[in-house]
Design a protein that fits this description.
The protein has 159 residues and is α+β, with helices and mostly antiparallel strands. The protein has two domains: 1-42; 61-148, Alpha-Beta Plaits. Helices cover 32% and strands 14% of the residues. It contains four helices and seven strands. It has helices at 2-38, 73-77, 110-114, 140-143, and strands at 61-63, 83-86, 97-101, 120-122, 137-138, 151-153, 156-158. Strands 2-3-5 form a three-stranded antiparallel β-sheet.
């Protein structure tokens, strides 16, 4: 008979302890939530603020056309065949117009390492958002400058 009373008392205590532990968990979550609402968020306001990137960032390429000798070492080094040289668009004898296909580029940096004439560099620009895939194919006119046309989306203009 004492055993039945003891087992009944244990189940009652277990139920109460389960309730109190659940209540404690709820208060712990609420405390964390209130603490987070009082602190300023650590986020970047992406389209409006630029994020800081280190100097070693492998971003968009820039091609200095006057240093280029059209040796095609960058084309040979590219594992994804993202670089194409157009020798028809020459400005002078040893000139080559680079065409980059950023839908294929993996930003490995092999093309920059292969260039012995300091004609190809990485920049810190990692935002390559465009309206269409065709806009991600950069020709010689866009490879020599860091300027880009602003992107328009839902009536708003971004960089």
């Amino acid at each position: 008979m004492s055993r039945d009373w003891h087992s009944c008392w244990e189940s009652e205590v277990d139920e109460r302890m389960g309730f109190f532990s659940t209540l404690g968990d709820i208060f712990r979550v609420l405390r964390h939530t209130f603490r987070q609402t009082m602190t300023r968020p650590f986020t970047y306001f992406y389209p409006f603020e630029d994020r800081y990137y280190p100097d070693t960032t492998r971003g968009r390429h820039i091609h200095i056309r006057k240093n280029c000798t059209a040796c095609a070492q960058c084309v040979k080094a590219c594992p994804t065949i993202a670089i194409r040289i157009d020798k028809q668009d020459r400005m002078y004898e040893k000139d080559a117009a680079l065409h980059f296909d950023y839908t294929r580029c993996i930003f490995c940096g092999l093309c920059v390492q292969a260039c012995k004439f300091n004609a190809l560099f990485h920049t810190k620009i990692v935002d390559l958002s465009e309206e269409t895939r065709e806009d991600l194919q950069y020709g010689p006119d866009r490879m020599g400058t860091l300027e880009r046309k602003p992107l328009k989306w839902r009536g708003r203009t971004f960089r």
